[in-house]
């Protein structure tokens, strides 16, 4: 059985659905999952952090930092917010420009499905693409649709199956394989926005605080690739997590250190010095438990050997505490990997793609969008914004 379409989009995720809503002509979206937009559904703790009002090219990692500019400039956070408002989805700004649904993330999936229906796009779920060939008339794709073999032909083929993160949710790396088949090159991939793990020596310091969250500035990376993030840090039984760590993980490379400042405002040491100059009777853990969680305060004071009265502390002891509090260097043993990573760094090399249309330069009719491409955003709604913007760019170019 042969089905003819103008455009076939592989992947009914954020980017694929956005592209389908704008492509025009006969459009088919193919996905092997039972439901479309599963990552949207679970994102942002079920409320989907769907964009970030401060989104700019500087919030993305890519071998070509200029590549994302064109698509992001033609479909920005306000364009997506406009769509959300047209669909009467209530939203709020949480922090740092991050916009979330008031209700369920499912509303975003429903909105995109409605846009796709409005554009006349067809959706095949539980459908697995097989062999793909290219001839003078375009692409031919073998598809196993719920046990039935179908052959689909199209002029335009859009790769939108995302990266390798969360294989349990169907991440497969399919777009990378098809990109390579048609001559596009790949940048090596690694997990991003992922908790960091540590060896036994560091875990001795970390695990007594498992469950404690505190504001921190975390710095990772080397040379011009260094980045610092000031957000919450979470101690866990396996290592470190929380937004500050997830952000830094995308800049961390094996063997490098991460530096942790648990007093990003720089207010703790002046407070201790002030207390020492007054009565000096309170203990250091008691004073530290004002600005810091009590368990963290007690642990840091013990690690620096400053558990007694602040009035008895020599300057050297305060400096020791400052080093532990503000300049703790740790070497992660690794990350929790694709099992928990929110995104995949690397992917289809942008060198082979036109930045305006996301079209492959050397292969007529082939497009790549979303997380499959070597453009990875920070935590905070940037990755969805890239999915919307790149999906829109390809859809409107088709
Ligand atoms: P996406 O992964 O969304 O879609 C790919 C689609 O392709 C899937 O439907 C999949 O089933 C399908 N597919 C894969 N292999 C296939 C195959 N072989 N055959 C057929 N179909 C196949 N970002 C953000 O901006 N704000 C947030 O709040 C969050 N929160 C968040 C939470 C969690 C837990 C995760 C894992 C990730 C996030 N993200 C996020 C990141 C965001 O989800 C991600 O960047 C986008 O979903 C990427 O969109 P894509 O459409 O490129 O891929």
Shape: elongated
Q: Which structural class do the helices and strands define?
A: alpha+beta
Summed up, the helix count is 13
Count of individual beta strands: 23
The portion of residues forming beta strands comes to: 25-35%
What is the CA-based Rg, rounded? 24 Å
Mean pLDDT: 96
Strand arrangement within the widest β-sheet reads 19-18-15-16-17-14-20
Q: Describe the biggest sheet?
A: 7 strands, antiparallel
Helix share bin? 25-40%
Assembly annotation: single chain
Heterogens? dihydroflavine-adenine dinucleotide
Residue runs with pLDDT of under 50 for 5 or more positions: none
Alpha carbon gap, first and last residue: 26 Å
Cofactor: FAD
Protein name: Dihydrolipoamide dehydrogenase
Keywords: FAD, Flavoprotein, Oxidoreductase
GO molecular function, one term: dihydrolipoyl dehydrogenase (NADH) activity
Task: Please describe what this structure looks like.
By secondary structure, the protein is α+β, with helices and mostly antiparallel strands. It is 30% helix and 26% strand. The protein is built from 13 helices and 23 strands. It has a seven-stranded antiparallel β-sheet. A five-stranded parallel β-sheet has the order 8-3-2-12-22, sandwiched between helices. The protein has a four-stranded mixed β-sheet with strand order 1-11-10-9, with no helix packed on it. Helix 1 (14-23) packs parallel to helix 5 (106-118) and helix 1 (14-23) packs parallel to helix 13. The protein is elongated and about 85 Å long. It starts with a strand and ends with a helix. The mean pLDDT is 96. The structure holds dihydroflavine-adenine dinucleotide. Dihydroflavine-adenine dinucleotide binds next to helix 1, helix 2, strand 9 and helix 13.
């Amino acid at each position: 059985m042969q089905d003819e379409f103008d455009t076939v989009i592989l992947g009914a995720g954020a980017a694929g659905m956005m592209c389908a809503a704008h492509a025009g002509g006969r459009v088919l979206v193919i996905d092997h999952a039972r439901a479309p937009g599963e990552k949207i559904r679970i994102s942002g703790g079920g409320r989907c952090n769907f964009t970030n009002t401060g989104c700019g090219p500087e919030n993305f990692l890519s071998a070509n930092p200029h590549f994302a500019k064109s698509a992001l400039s033609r479909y920005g956070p306000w364009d997506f917010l406009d769509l959300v408002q047209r669909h009467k989805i209530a939203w709020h700004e949480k922090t740092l420009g991050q916009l979330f649904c008031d209700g369920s993330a499912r509303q975003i999936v429903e909105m995109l499905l409605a846009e796709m229906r409005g554009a006349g796009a067809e959706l095949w779920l539980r459908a697995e693409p097989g062999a793909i060939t290219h001839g003078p008339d375009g692409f031919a794709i073998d598809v196993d649709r719920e046990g039935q073999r179908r052959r689909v032909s199209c002029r335009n083929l859009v790769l939108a199956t995302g990266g390798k993160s969360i294989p349990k949710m169907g991440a497969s790396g399919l777009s990378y394989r098809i990109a390579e088949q048609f001559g596009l090159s790949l940048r090596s991939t690694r997990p991003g926005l992922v908790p960091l793990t540590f060896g036994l020596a560091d875990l001795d310091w970390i695990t007594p605080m498992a469950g404690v969250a505190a504001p921190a500035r975390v710095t990772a990376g080397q040379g011009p690739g260094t980045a610092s993030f000031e957000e919450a840090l979470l101690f866990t039984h396996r290592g470190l997590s929380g937004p500050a760590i997830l952000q830094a993980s995308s800049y961390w490379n094996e063997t490098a250190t991460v530096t942790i400042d648990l007093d990003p405002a720089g207010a703790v040491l002046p407070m201790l010095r002030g207390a020492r100059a007054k009565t000096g009777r309170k203990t250091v853990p008691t004073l530290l438990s004002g600005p810091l969680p009590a368990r963290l305060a007690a642990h840091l004071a013990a690690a620096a050997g400053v558990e007694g009265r602040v009035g008895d502390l020599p300057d050297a002891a305060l400096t020791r505490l400052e080093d532990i509090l503000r300049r703790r260097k740790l070497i992660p043993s690794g990350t929790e990997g694709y099992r928990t990573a929110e995104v995949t760094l690397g992917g289809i090399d942008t060198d082979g793609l036109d930045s305006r249309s996301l079209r492959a330069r050397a292969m007529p009719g082939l497009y790549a969008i979303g997380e499959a491409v070597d453009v990875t955003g920070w935590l905070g709604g940037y990755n969805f914004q890239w999915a919307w913007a790149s999906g829109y760019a390809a859809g409107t170019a088709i």
